[in-house]
């Protein structure tokens, strides 16, 4: 089966590579010539565990190719995935210009049946807009060519995306014709052979499912962060509370960890887009809006804790461990560290030292005007520091040599933004330790 993936960013590249791994012939298309040239050499533009190896393997076996020319790929593809970006507009709504540009190109150039699939996260009824654009272009050409438009939202976790695609919890596919369902069933047959769930539904429901899933998880995170903040005030321990409520089968224990807020490419953008969709239909999404408000405030909780302990931060040296929004990725989109660094930089004379295993180059790119000393390892970052702030729970931060840190740091403050350290142990070593909602 031959397919084309339009957009070789995070979603498109993982999708194309994993379909190739499952035996499909894939061409990944992108307008970025340099990106495509690098991919043809096996050089990925993103950091994702296991992806580089699969790209190289499937280039070598001939199932994965890369191109900048979508027009050349259209007639050789039974399925064309649109995985281009849908960045938030100024009002928070999803910007569909790239999705509709892809549809326009397909409509101008298609000569035979194709199943066009939106893989990008898009608002409900985007498929209708895509269909309308293609039909309009066909009408301009005086052509009547059968085609289908489907929705196949992605549910990939950064840092675990390859496994999520190859061994999915579920695959959601929105279709509006028997032919589209047959085509998509054949495409996903390698996964159903392994008993992975493929759920067919109508197109608007599939489009809504992605937003609803991410919004639910975002709400759980913000809920637990509010509980953690209250725990700080009343002297309770959020870790104990999490165990107590997570053991309830109606609730479960996933996404109940408190911290300094969520970031990344999905949750912030999708929560905003779903809220905006509600406004468009006179259906205010009050819980969704509250989750976003809580998250915005939570990103600076650790900064306020630092201020409470040190007061004036002038001339203080602050060590930051971790910069990416989560471990196993270099993604800095909406990362709490960006907000913490910006807040620290406003304190005149504050010295910021930081270390992250992967994301320091991307942080420099995003904060070019802020003076941060980027260090070679976690211990260099801690040298001479008045306080250490853990912002991202990379594995290498889990068991530091605390004796070494105690001898080389200037102060004894440790603020744990992800609650990975044992409070009693660190306090016995003489550290002034605080987590988020912990005792």
Brief summary:
With 439 residues, this protein is of the alpha/beta class. Helix content is 45%, strand content 14%. The N and C termini lie far apart (57 Å).
Structure write-up:
The protein is 45% helix and 14% strand. It folds into three domains: 200 residues, Rossmann fold, CATH 3.40.50; 87 residues, Orthogonal Bundle (N-(1-d-carboxylethyl)-l-norvaline Dehydrogenase, domain 2), CATH 1.10.1040; 136 residues, NAD(P)-binding Rossmann-like Domain (Rossmann fold). The strands form three sheets. The protein has a six-stranded parallel sheet, sandwiched between helices. Strands 11-10-9-12-13-14 form a six-stranded parallel sheet. It has a two-stranded parallel sheet with strand order 7-8. The radius of gyration is 24 Å and the shape is elongated. The protein has 19 helices and 14 strands. Helix 12 packs antiparallel against helix 13. The chain has 439 residues and is an alpha/beta fold.
The CATH superfamily of the largest domain turns out to be NAD(P)-binding Rossmann-like Domain
The number of helical elements comes to 19
What fold name stands as the CATH topology of the largest domain? Rossmann fold
Kindly give the count of domains: 3
Cα shape: elongated
Number of strands: 14
Secondary structure blueprint with pairings:
Layout: E1 2-6, H1 10-21, E2 25-29, H2 33-40, H3 51-60, E3 64-67, H4 70-74, E4 79-82, H5 97-109, E5 114-118, H6 126-141, E6 147-151, H7 161-166, E7 170-174, H8 178-187, H9 189-192, E8 197-201, H10 203-234, H11 238-246, H12 267-280, H13 286-298, H14 301-310, E9 317-321, H15 336-346, E10 351-355, H16 360-366, E11 373-374, H17 378-382, E12 387-390, H18 402-408, E13 413-416, H19 423-428, E14 432-434
Helix pairs in contact: 1-3, 5-6, 10-12, 10-13, 12-13
């Amino acid at each position: 089966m031959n397919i084309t993936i339009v957009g070789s960013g995070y979603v498109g590249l993982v999708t194309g590579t994993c379909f190739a791994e499952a035996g499909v012939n894939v061409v990944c298309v992108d307008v970025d010539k340099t990106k495509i040239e690098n991919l043809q050499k096996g050089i990925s533009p993103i950091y994702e565990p296991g992806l580089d190896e699969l790209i190289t393997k499937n280039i070598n076996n001939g199932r994965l190719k890369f191109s900048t020319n979508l027009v050349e790929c259209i007639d050789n593809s039974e399925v064309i995935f649109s995985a281009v970006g849908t960045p938030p507009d100024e009002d928070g709504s999803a910007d569909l210009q790239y999705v509709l540009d892809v549809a326009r190109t397909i409509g101008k150039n298609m000569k035979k049946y194709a199943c066009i699939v939106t893989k990008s996260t898009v608002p409900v009824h985007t498929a209708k807009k895509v269909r309308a654009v293609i039909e309009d272009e066909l009408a301009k050409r005086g052509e009547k060519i059968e085609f289908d438009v489907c929705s196949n939202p992605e549910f990939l976790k950064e840092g675990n995306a390859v496994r999520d695609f190859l061994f999915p919890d579920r695959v959601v596919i929105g279709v509006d014709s028997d032919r589209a369902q047959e085509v998509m069933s054949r495409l996903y047959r390698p996964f159903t052979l392994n008993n992975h769930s493929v759920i067919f539904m109508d197109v608007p429901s599939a489009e809504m499912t992605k937003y609803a899933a991410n919004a639910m998880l975002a709400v759980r995170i913000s809920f637990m962060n509010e509980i953690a903040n209250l725990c700080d005030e009343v002297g309770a321990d959020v870790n104990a509370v999490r165990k107590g409520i997570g053991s309830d089968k109606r609730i479960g224990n996933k996404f109940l960890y408190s911290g300094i807020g969520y970031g990344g490419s999905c949750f912030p953008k999708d929560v905003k887009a779903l809220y905006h969709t509600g406004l468009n239909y006179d259906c205010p999404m009050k819980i969704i809006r509250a989750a976003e408000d809580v998250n915005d405030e939570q990103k600076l909780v650790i900064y306020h804790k630092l201020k409470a302990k040190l007061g004036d931060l002038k001339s203080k040296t602050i060590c930051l461990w971790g910069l990416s929004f989560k471990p196993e990725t270099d993604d800095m989109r909406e990362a709490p560290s960006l907000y913490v660094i910006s807040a620290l930089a406003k304190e005149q004379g504050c010295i910021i030292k930081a270390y992250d295993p992967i994301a320091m180059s991307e942080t420099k790119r995003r904060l070019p005007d802020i003076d941060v000393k980027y260090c070679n390892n976690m211990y260099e970052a801690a040298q001479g520091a008045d306080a250490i702030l853990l912002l991202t729970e990379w594995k290498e931060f889990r068991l530091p040599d605390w004796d070494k840190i105690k001898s080389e740091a200037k102060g004894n403050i440790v603020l744990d933004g992800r609650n990975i350290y044992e409070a009693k142990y660190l306090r016995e070593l003489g550290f002034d330790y605080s987590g988020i909602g912990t005792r």
